[in-house]
Amino acid sequence: MTNNNKTPSTVTFGNNRLSIEDVVALAEGRAKAALSDDADFRQRIAKGVDFLDRELRDHGHIYGVTTGYGDSVLRRVPPHLVDELPLHLSRFHGCGLGAELSVPASRAVLAVRLASLCSGYSGVSIELLELLNAFFAHDITPIIPEEGSVGASGDLTPLSYIAAALVGEREVMMGGERLPADAALQKAGLQPLTLRPKEALAIMNGTSVMTALMCQAFMRAQYLCQISTRITALATIALHGNPAHFDARLFAAKPHPGQARIAANIASDLAMLGDGYQPARLQDRYSIRCAPHVIGVLADMMPTFRTTLETELNSANDNPLIDIEDETILHGGHFYGGHVAFVADGMKTLIANIADLMDRQMALLVDTKFNHGLPSNLSGSSTDRASINHGLKAVQIGVSAWTAEALKNTMPASVFSRSTECHNQDKVSMGTIAARDCLRVLQLTEQVAAALLITVRQAMVLRLEQGSITRDQLGDDIAAFLDDLGRDIAFIDEDRPLEGTLRHLVARIGARHWPLYSEGSAEK
Ligand SMILES: N[C@@H](Cc1ccc(O)cc1)C(=O)O
């Protein structure tokens, strides 16, 4: 498939592997979906269906086809009710609650489930795969409530909303419009699917919701590494900090590659300060001096996170699996999302630590006890009006609140297994809760980053006005970045509400608006 760090224009589902970038490009509507025409792939899919049909005819006993589900495995379904069983599965799981997934998130879920079904272990028909693929072409996304999965019988309840949409039940979004699924299918000229015996189980019995959410989280975490690195560089300059903390020789002596790269990026941002530059202190406080050691942990874990997420993304995480080579049905527990759960729990901890780092950097910048000659709360008001102006005081309070909430949400979800479903599912992953927490922590941390962008830009303008830093001492990248920020953030001389600016900057961060360092540099 595509190279990991390039945006594809078409993502093809078939025998090939998908990358996180493929999923996110589809989710964000930057790529089209296609189902492979490859003869081997189509034959493999056909073989699975044919084998299941024969198995049912010749042996007449298959889990989830002629039995009840889960703990109800001992219940035998008589042949005349076998065809009705899949619709029961999708319907009794139609009990999701909570917020609805966004359209991009729902698209990511569709993509991840389609990828898994294409691995050829689930015994679904090519018609099912074609219809899922057609959802992309017609911009149809199931409306999926995000709560109700324990992440270890797969994401049964949220994925039931995909099964329902395919058969023309419940609601979908289509080109920005909320419609009953049957109406949307009709509008698109598509026929609702009649689910074959194992197909509802195949759609629902997997880890695709948590995996999709973590693909989105991964891309955001990657950008967070970069933006927090740039913020650190600007905070260091604005505080008259010491560039020597980022010397390559230091990082060769403790050579975690991600950490070294973050340090090198900060060092290159500070390179133009020049020999005449005098730092205010020999050693800066840890939120400056140890920034590579905080951001670097996330940077160093990203390759592992990628490997784990992409293994899950390209896996058959259904049960039972159909081995078409040996013509056997394999009963297992691949719907268990333990790996994704751990990535989500781990990633959210590392992200919240970056929120905390930036919160501490802001504390240094706004406080005249630490900021080496900048005004209180970085207010740019002239002296006679300084008594009524409070600059970034409330923004700092907001940052404290967002940081506290991010830190609070780092409670691991994966250790809170509950035995459920009459003790059949007596150990579960809670990976979907972990993934949702991770996204919430990201959102809060991106808000902190937005506030820090206002802070460092304000501090830099003040320094340039003071003349304690000159424009020549900023490298081209830093100067261009500050100019770009200046178009989004007006200088704060008189107090004004900053909500609009904050929201705008949060959206900019979400869109990875500023190209920072080299693409994908938070990883390799
Ligand atoms: N995940 C279960 C199947 C299942 C499906 C739906 C349920 O409600 C419960 C269990 C298995 O494969 O064993």
Please name the CATH topology of the largest domain: Fumarase C, Chain A, domain 2
Q: Hetero groups bound?
A: tyrosine
| H and E order | EHEHHEHHEEHEEHHHHHHHEEHHHHH
The second-level CATH architecture of the largest domain is Up-down Bundle
Pfam families: Lyase_aromatic
Protein name: Histidine ammonia-lyase
InterPro entries: Aromatic_Lyase, Fumarase/histidase_N, L-Aspartase-like, Phe/His_NH3-lyase_AS
Organism: Thalassospira marina
Explained architecture:
This protein has 18 helices and nine strands. With 524 residues, it is mainly alpha-helical. It folds into two domains: 10-206, Fumarase C, Chain B, domain 1 (Orthogonal Bundle); 214-510, Fumarase C, Chain A, domain 2, CATH 1.20.200.10. The chain has a three-stranded antiparallel β-sheet with strand order 4-6-7. A two-stranded parallel sheet has the order 1-2. A two-stranded antiparallel sheet has the order 3-5. Helix 4 packs antiparallel against helix 5 (126-137) and helix 4 crosses helix 9 (208-238). The longest helix has 36 residues, at 431-466. The structure holds tyrosine (TYR).
